[in-house]
Amino acid sequence: MDAPNTFKTPCKQDRVKSLTTAGACGTPTMTIPASPFMQKLGCGTGVNVYLMKRTGKQIQSPWAIKKISSHCAKTQQNVYQKRLCDEAKILKHLKHPNIVGFRAFTTAADGSKCLAMEYGGEQSLNDLIEKRREEGETAFPASTIEQVALNMARGLKYLHNERRLLHGDIKSCNVVIKGDFETIKICDVGVSLKLDENMKVSDPRARYIGTEPWKPKEALEEGIITDKADIFAYGLTLWEMMTLSVPHLEELDCDNDDEEDSSEEEEFDEDAYYAALGTRPALNMEDLNASYQRMIELFLMCTNEDPRKRPSAAQIVDVLEANKQATDDQIIIID
């Protein structure tokens, strides 16, 4: 995640900004505190996400507020505002326990957009991976990886099969976790693409955005993009949990917003990095015992360079739910 922005203390009259409704989404007029008075949850390219604690006569659930970053270059602001507007339009029509929910979409007095979403969790999966690595830990327990795998697959199955949408940027940064993996939700649908009945991107002019280390070969080589592009990135997300690394480049920051340390630049083998993109990164099998076998097999299937040989999200859900049921039945017998 990026380093927190430094905010100037606003004048008293500016501490709370009134936001007007956005006609496209038809949300009610609402008041949101200025950015310095909300807890920063994280950053994306050109945007920041904040925690908004709502108060009233009754206890209300908090919201996550996504806003254009004040440090975003003026030449790029229109791009990110359009992307945020597109995300709001898409998110408004999505409803699934493994997809972060829509709450409101508004326009600030200065014209900038503000997307209010369900508060999906305190940290992203990437935050937890970084924390675990910094503490000198190894791979997440196999049971935890399988739990994340099942919940992510359920969210992707809903997007692909029911909403005919390709998420387009699956990675650990775009998975939010509440508590001790109590809930697992996919977020950031701002670059999603429409799928046709054959699970292919329906608009030939649409461009797959993604994030470079998670891109499949077909996206890097301008091939045909299908639902299997998400599956490749999904497989690499499981790899992240088993290695605590970023695919193909361990020190790469998810959002690529910070300048890299000069010493790291000197050690970076650019040719090797670009040659590795779109391929399956290696696993250190010595670090993974027999309990990881199912997740290793799933990772291998999902990261096949031929998209036709990757499983669909629906197939993954079927297998993982069957495994979960078998495990639950064993526990009942033991008890």
Keywords:
16% strand; 335 residues; seven-stranded antiparallel sheet; alpha+beta; disordered N terminus; three-stranded antiparallel sheet
Walk me through the structure.
With 335 residues, the protein is α+β, with helices and mostly antiparallel strands. Helices cover 34% and strands 16% of the residues. The strands form three sheets. The chain has a seven-stranded antiparallel sheet with strand order 2-1-6-7-5-4-3, with helices on one face. The chain has a three-stranded antiparallel sheet with strand order 8-10-11. It has a two-stranded antiparallel sheet with strand order 9-12. The chain starts with 15 loop residues before the first strand and ends with a helix. Residues 1-29 and 256-265 have low confidence and may be disordered.
Describe what is shown at a glance:
The chain is of the alpha+beta class and 335 residues long. The chain has helices spanning 74-91, 125-134, 142-162, 217-220, 228-243, 262-267, 270-276, 293-302, 313-334, and strands spanning 16-21, 30-33, 39-44, 47-52, 63-68, 102-107, 113-118, 123-124, 165-166, 175-178, 183-186, 193-194.
Helix content range: 25-40%
Average pLDDT, to the nearest integer? 81
> What's the β-strand tally?
12
Low-confidence spans: pLDDT under 50, at least 5 residues? 1-29, 256-265
First and last CA, distance: 43 Å
Number of helices: 9
Name the overall outline: globular
Helices and strands, in order, run as: EEEEEHEEEHHEEEEHHHHHH
Q: Assess the beta-strand content as a share of residues.
A: 15-25%
> What gyration radius follows from the Cα positions, in whole Å?
20 Å
Strand order of the largest sheet: 2-1-6-7-5-4-3
Q: How many strands, which pairing sense, and closed or not: the largest β-sheet?
A: 7 strands, antiparallel
Structural class: alpha+beta
